[in-house]
Design a protein that fits this description.
single chain, alpha+beta, 7 helices, elongated, five-stranded mixed β-sheet, four-stranded antiparallel β-sheet
């Protein structure tokens, strides 16, 4: 077969096999000749109710923080604002989900107000009710992830940020008992077996007891990390364990996840939108507008897929997505109030062409934290260690040992200072209110006092006994240097080696 025929076959295959496709939903005009639309907004809650064939929209932020409720009638293709008495306080960046004819929202933010309440919207009667928050509720946070799996009575809520702290714990609200329970504690951020504390994370339920999360901001609030981040995890509520997926899509905050309809019990999760930039990011490969990342739950891998359509939605941040029997609905985000439908199921996702390459640290993505790692490892992990080694074992090469020692120590401290600056800029606030950051400051103080006390060292006098001042100085200089080097190894382990254990674990499992 000639190359031309092969190209024709490929073209025909790509145009006849069903693939993921974007379609903008045209809203019906009112009697005045213009459609009734919710105001532009982002970070809102959106769900689809199969019984009434309606979308439910609540809250979000735009020119103001909204507390309104809207219904979109699929048959009439029209929006309608619901007139309410009792309703939840206005909020954005909440956790939400729909189950058995009711829409639920929990947590969220409005100005200085944070919430850990949970509200139920009865779609048939169009009324809101605040549910009891007994048991062990989450802290008042925003930017968490969770929701319902279709038909489940378990509402998941994981991670989030309060006014002073990022969290890594996970909760379940049981609709049967009307109680919260903590199913995963707010454990150490240095444990690589679970996701780091974070907020502005996206999530989707893929089973009654399985929650997938993606990205978010891991920096500030008593912790340090990537912001935006590119890691993704799945939580098993039965075993109460987290598992990490391989990296692929770009780092993001304010992204959206939704489950596609299953075909043959195959489950696929779509990742769309989000903020791929930030003060930390130096280099990144941003996703094109016609790309979505698709997670294959069975093979546990991400694939970057191309979405077809005569018109493609503009890239956006903080959009709402809701699963539908034929695809996924998406509303708003950034400065938009348009409605889109991503038509397709798990088979169509698998049939869609790939577009772009997966990214990973140092491969299409580089930020200030990674530069911090390079500087600190080069300075404290190599040069300063080498300088101490030379001073300990090469004194017989006098005065060469002293010159090499001084070069290594000065160069190492300069790189350490550069790494400290990168760390300070990369952490949004509470720069040293966590173990790695606080210990880093102690190490740098110990490091910089070494050349200072070297300037004021008592000099040896050739042919005379060593003076007591010189003996005391040598004791302080040598042992404070050793302490700094030992602590640097500990801190490098906290910052880089321990979080990378999962890589070694995956390699061993493969072998």
């Amino acid at each position: 077969m000639t190359a031309q025929r092969v190209s024709v076959v490929i073209l025909l295959f790509s145009t006849t096999v069903a693939q993921l496709t974007w379609t903008e939903v045209q809203v019906t005009n009112t009697s005045s000749g213009t459609p009734s639309l919710p105001p532009t907004r982002r970070d809102h809650a959106l769900g689809y109710d199969i019984a009434t064939n309606q979308l439910v929209l609540f809250g979000g932020r735009g020119n103001i923080v909204y507390g309104d409720t809207w219904l979109f009638d699929m048959a009439a293709k029209s929006w309608r604002q619901v007139t309410l008495g009792t309703k939840p306080p206005a909020r954005f960046s909440m956790v939400y989900g729909i189950s058995n004819g009711a829409f639920y929202v929990s947590t969220g933010q409005e100005g200085a107000n944070l919430y850990n309440d949970i509200w139920k919207f009865n779609i048939s009667s169009e009324t809101w009710t605040e549910l009891p928050s007994s048991g062990t509720p989450p802290a008042k946070v925003y930017g968490g992830a969770g929701g319902f799996f279709n038909g489940s009575s378990k509402f998941y809520m994981s991670h989030g940020f309060s006014s002073s702290q990022r969290y890594a714990n996970t909760f379940i609200y049981d609709l049967g008992t009307m109680r919260w329970s903590e199913v995963f504690p707010d454990a150490s951020s240095y444990d690589p077996s679970h996701p780091h504390a974070r907020c502005l994370v996206s999530g989707a339920m893929v089973d009654e007891d399985k929650l997938v999360i993606y990205g978010g901001c891991l920096s500030g609030g008593k912790t340090g990390g990537h912001c935006p981040s590119f890691d993704s995890w799945i939580f098993n509520g039965k075993s109460r364990e987290w598992s990490r997926y391989p990296n692929c899509a770009s780092a993001r905050t304010y992204s959206s996840l939704a489950l596609l309809p299953s075909s043959g019990n195959k489950k696929r999760v779509v990742l769309y939108g989000g903020n791929e930039k930030g003060g930390q990011v130096l280099i990144t490969k941003e996703a094109p507008a016609n790309q979505v990342a698709v997670l294959n739950i069975e093979s546990e891998e991400w694939v970057l897929r191309k979405v077809l359509g005569s018109k493609i939605p503009k890239k956006r941040v903080g959009t709402g997505m809701a699963s539908h029997p034929n695809g996924i609905y998406m509303f708003g985000g950034s400065e938009f109030n348009d409605l889109w439908f991503l038509e397709g199921d798990s088979d169509k996702a698998d049939n869609s062409a790939t577009i772009g390459e997966c990214i990973a640290p140092f491969k299409g993505f580089f930020n200030l934290i990674m530069l911090h790692v390079v500087f600190m490892f080069s300075g404290w992990g190599i040069l300063l260690q080498a300088g101490a080694f030379i001073a300990r074992y090469f004194r017989f090469k006098d005065p060469l040992w002293f010159h090499l020692h001084r070069i290594c120590q000065v160069s190492g401290l300069v790189l350490g200072l550069a790494g400290l600056i990168c760390a300070g800029v990369s952490v949004q606030f509470d720069h040293f209110n966590f173990a790695h950051g606080g210990l880093g400051i102690v190490i740098m103080i110990l490091g910089f006092q070494q050349p200072i006390n070297a300037i004021f060292r008592p000099h040896k006098v050739k042919g005379e006994p060593v003076a007591m001042k010189r003996t005391i100085w040598e004791f302080v200089h040598i042992n404070s240097g050793r302490l700094a080097l030992i602590l640097s190894v500990v801190n490098i382990s906290l910052g880089k080696i321990f979080p990378s254990i999962h890589i070694c674990k995956n390699v061993l499992e493969y072998l």
